[in-house]
User: Which sequence fits this backbone?
């Protein structure tokens, strides 16, 4: 699986996945941390998750170049912006 990432003017990321001659393209929003800054580690993890899911679907024949052409639509936005927070529980002695 090969992936390429292109940042769009509106801030969204255009991700292109290529596997076994099939090319699938998705838009995702940047993933933000608590300080509202882009989190590269979480973004890399999200792209890896998508790549795995798309690779399995291509291997199963669910996603093909023909199925993508038949949809004839803009790539889907698959991930809303996320802010990851960590919850801390108070510990009583």
Assistant:
């Amino acid at each position: 699986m090969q992936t390429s990432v292109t940042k769009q003017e509106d801030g969204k990321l255009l991700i292109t996945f290529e596997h076994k001659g099939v090319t699938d393209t998705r838009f995702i929003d940047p993933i933000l941390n608590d300080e509202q800054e882009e989190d590269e580690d979480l973004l890399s993890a999200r792209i890896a998750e998508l790549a795995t899911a798309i690779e399995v679907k291509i291997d199963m024949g669910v996603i093909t170049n023909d199925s993508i052409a038949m949809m004839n639509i803009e790539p889907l936005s698959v991930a809303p912006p996320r802010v990851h927070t960590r919850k801390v529980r108070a510990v009583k002695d």
Summary: DSSP finds two helices and five strands in the chain. The chain has one domain: 2-83.
